[in-house]
Write a structure and sequence with these properties.
The chain is mainly α and 183 residues long. It has two domains: 8-53, no CATH class; 62-168, AhpD-like (Up-down Bundle), CATH 1.20.1290.10. It has nine helices and no strands. The protein has helices spanning 13-26, 31-36, 40-53, 62-75, 79-93, 97-100, 113-126, 134-143, 146-168. It starts with 12 loop residues before the first helix and ends in a 15-residue tail after the last helix.
């Protein structure tokens, strides 16, 4: 990590309270929290944004959300994000088979049509300077509602921001979920 964590006592009391709850949930203190916690207001906004995108009110299938997040993490070289989101995918599908084949999803038969479409959209968004073709948006609209497309876009761009943040600060994987090697 490029920036060492501050002692836990140096974070605001309300973040320490949140961190304790999240540590119980995840079984460990996740390293990105140390960095986001240096900007307490943004840390809270980050948590709120994430809770909305990954909560029960989401219009997207939980497994699809996790699959997209793993792919965004791969595209942005975020070891922590791959680790964390692969664990979410495992919890939601009881399998890491698709996660292990994500880098070659175009050649893998096990991906559903809506997953392929979401992954295609994900890869385009993650490239710099790419405009989304009208043809792709038309295909998205045939599969997803307008609200789902907006939410998918928010999820992809939020995960991209998070992955780039973690990768830039060299936040490592924490060994939560190792992906299988691609065949």
């Amino acid at each position: 990590m490029h920036i060492d964590p501050k002692p836990i006592t140096k974070y605001p009391f309300y973040l320490r309270w949140v961190y304790r709850r999240l540590e119980r949930r995840h079984g460990q203190f996740l390293l990105p929290w140390y960095q986001w916690g240096r900007l307490p207001a943004l840390q809270i906004l980050f948590f709120l944004f994430w809770a909305r995108l990954d909560g029960k009110k989401s219009r997207l299938d939980p497994a699809l959300r996790a699959l997209v997040q793993v792919r965004v993490a791969q595209l942005n070289w975020c070891a922590f994000c791959v680790d964390f989101n692969a664990l979410n995918l495992l919890k939601r599908t009881n399998s890491l088979e698709k996660a292990g084949r994500l880098e070659k999803w175009r050649d893998a038969d096990e991906f559903l049509p809506e997953e392929r479409l979401a992954l295609e959209y994900t890869e385009l968004i993650c490239r710099e300077g790419v405009k989304i073709p009208a043809e792709l948006m038309d295909r998205l609209k045939q599969t997803f509602s307008d609200d789902q497309i907006v939410e998918l876009t928010a999820l992809i761009t939020f995960q991209t921001m998070s992955a780039k943040f973690n990768a830039a600060l060299d936040i490592p994987s924490q060994g939560m979920c190792r992906l299988p090697e691609a065949p």
